[in-house]
Amino acid sequence: MGAKTGLLVYADGDVPCRLGEVGEADLGRTTAMMRCLYPGWVIEAAAGSNLWDGVYPPDGRAYAGSWPGVELVCDRRVMVDLPSQLPDELVAASAGRRMVLHAMHSVVDWLAFGVWEDGRLIRSLSLSPDSGIVENIGEPLPFEVPYWAGERRAEVIPWPDEDDEPYALPFHPLEMGEDALRALCGFIVEGRPDPGDVDADAIGLHGFLVRDPDAPDPAVKEAALRAAAAMGPPRTYVLGPDGTLIKRDAL
Questions:
Q1: In Å, how far from its chain's centre is CA 94?
Q2: Which residues pair with 102 in a beta bridge?
Q3: What is the pLDDT of residues 143-189, one digit of tens each?
Q4: What is the Cα–Cα distance from 219 to 225, expressed in whole angstroms?
């Protein structure tokens, strides 16, 4: 499994139904949404993507779309360990509608999702095999029931010459993550799509470079990395018998 997501969706009602009806997202409307969700941040237009490819954007970039009845943003910054601690401005934007957070990272088998109704959190879950269940608020949603009932136990293939140790959780977070994505948003990023799934590849998203004005300038950071890469090998000195420093040519 290699799925990664950082997705936040706002909808007037059922998210899959709304996403199944969208056409081309208006750039002006989408830009206005981004400025509302990231007040005071530096936001610049960039190359776009689609919902299937763009659900896990590069660092510092966001993909977004705004339509009547549904809005979404794909951004690594929404991949928070505790969905209940999502920034206030993002939660405030859910007033009067449903908000869904879906975050998943295959490298650490981590899943987090949350559902808000009219700004109120009704369900959140965050878990990984290393950290266990980090957050578990509200009653399980229907798609979760088979997992908690022990019907979807993790099948782990051990590495060669390693013992077959049991998985640290009763189920695999990424397997639940795909079911969560389908149930809450209408599509999946891995596996075989169902005929009724939303065609995420057909939903075009606008691209944005998004930067916190209080964060270090990316250009300065990049220049520092280039300077470090251009540095020669380290110079090593030893203390001589008379107390002076003597340069050594090699370690």
A1: 18
A2: 7, 113
A3: 999 999 999 888 766 666 666 677 889 999 999 999 999 999 999 99
A4: 10
